[in-house]
């Protein structure tokens, strides 16, 4: 009886992404790669982008279960390049049921030392890029049934952080963009939400000393950094039919960091 219930629960979880085509920007490493893998594991056909490291993207692609997945080189700061890539995706994969705006950059510096071009670069990649991709897919999403957009923000977009005024502004803007587009598209059953990760373990954090890691962990109520797959699970939930009555929200995945 227990095994039967477990099988039924697994089927309920999986059905949310089975048969869905999902497009993810910045999917060749880190959180993006974890999202790509989770979506494929849950039965979706995935298209994802990379900006420069093709070998890394090919490695992620070759690791995915299922068939029909695709990769595309894309600079999300170019509206023309986004439109061209989206046209290719729709031609090659057909209808897209979910998009994840994950691509982004940081160029940290204190305000008095920050170059205008660095502020612009972060805004264009993190905010404008999400706008370009969402706008380009909008007509397709309106036609699709139960479609979903998930924007990847950051706890910094809500809390702010010294030396990251450009990054904080871009992510705060992304959350406002999410809420506004959620209102615009809700009548056609297109849901738009944000996932805001906190301190997530990565190649960068692996290079930190035990003392530095402890200093970060001490600020987190759950007393540890998050894992990329924990963010991916939240994204997959918002892409799935299991979240069919959730829109315009920011889901914080940060171990309670935002509470401090």
What do these coordinates show?
The protein is of the alpha/beta class and 260 residues long. It contains ten helices and seven strands. It has a seven-stranded parallel β-sheet with strand order 3-2-1-4-5-6-7, sandwiched between helices. Strand 2, helix 3 (54-62) and strand 3 form a beta-alpha-beta unit. Helix 5 runs parallel beside helix 7. The chain is globular.
Largest sheet: 7 strands, parallel
Helix percent reads 40-55%
Average of the residue pLDDT scores: 91
Strand residues, percent? 5-15%
Biggest sheet, spatial arrangement of strands:
3-2-1-4-5-6-7
Note the total helix count.
10
SSE string, helix = H, strand = E?
HEHEHEHEHEHHEHHHE
Shape: globular
C-alpha-based Rg, rounded: 18 Å
Strand tally, please? Answer: 7
End-to-end separation in angstroms reads 44 Å
Structural class: alpha/beta
pLDDT under 50 segments (min length 5)?
1-5, 11-15
Entry keywords:
260 residues, alpha/beta, 10 helices, 7 strands, 13% strand, globular, disordered N terminus
List the helices and strands and how they pair.
Blueprint: H1 2-15, E1 21-24, H2 30-41, E2 45-50, H3 54-62, E3 70-73, H4 79-93, E4 98-101, H5 116-143, E5 148-152, H6 156-159, H7 165-185, E6 191-197, H8 203-206, H9 210-217, H10 228-239, E7 250-253
Parallel strand pairs: 1-2, 1-4, 2-3, 4-5, 5-6, 6-7
Helix pairs in contact: 2-10, 4-5, 5-7
Quick rundown:
Helix content is 49%, strand content 13%.
